[in-house]
Amino acid sequence: MNVTWFLIRGSGIAAFVLLTASVAWGLMVSTKLFGRAVKAKGLQWIHESLGIAAVVATVLHLGALWADEFIEFTVVDLLVPGASEWEPMATALGIVAFWSLLVVTFSFYVKRWIGQSAWRTIHYLAFGSYTAALVHGVAAGTDTGNPWMAGMYIGSAILVGLLTVVRILLARAPAARSAPTRA
Predict the structure, then answer these.
(1) Torsion of the alpha carbons at 74, 80, 85 and 88, rounded to the nearest 10
(2) pLDDT tens across 47-90, in order?
(3) Does residue 157 or residue 3 have the better pLDDT?
(4) Does residue 172 sit in helix, strand or coil?
């Protein structure tokens, strides 16, 4: 074990935790779970900051993988899905998660030009990004067999899953209330 290997593991775990936090926070904001207790602008800023931090941690993860001499990833291996021969499916999912995370995170900065509807549609990519990162971590992560890591993956999936169900149910609730009732 060398410093690079610890950096690869640590930055990968940090990126996943930050991505999970960003997705969970985004779901809490969109479901208005905080009500009027906190200003929406502050909640949005936290959500955006978590996304940026996840991007930074992922870039660090990719840089450490590129610098490591054990597998000898090329830049193409790290940026093009399907190019790597090492754990090709897991690596491809990690790359897809990275690119979609970039698109979702930086959509905050083009929202005024693309509009709310397009921005919201782009933000649905976060579910794919999270899922791809989860599968990437489970399949390619060297710590997956450790109970604490498995617990983190399971806990994050439960959290994001429950918040997604709440989001879906709350989105349907107004439609159900406004629908005409039959006599």
Answers:
(1) 140
(2) 999 999 999 999 999 999 999 988 899 999 999 999 999 999 99
(3) 157
(4) helix
Give the mean model confidence (pLDDT) for residues 88-108. Answer: 96
Q: What is the pLDDT of residue 30?
A: 85
* Measured distance between the N- and C-terminal CA atoms of the chain, rounded to whole angstroms: 72
| pLDDT for the residue numbered 31 | 83
Location of structure tokens 């976060």:
126
Residue 83, CA atoms < 13 Å, CB-side half-sphere: 13
Does 18 or 174 have the greater pLDDT score?
A: 18
Q: Where are the alpha helices (DSSP H) in 75-146?
A: 75-79, 88-106, 111-123, 125-140
**Which residues touch 16 (CB under 8 Å, ≥6 apart)?**
133, 134, 137, 152, 156
Q: What whole-number distance in Å separates Cα of residue 19 and Cα of residue 49? A: 11
- Which two three-digit tokens encode residue 160? 């994001």
- Write the CA distances from 77 to 33, 60, 65, 81, 91, integer angstroms: 41, 15, 10, 8, 8
147 CB burial (10 A radius; 0-12, 13-18, 19+): exposed
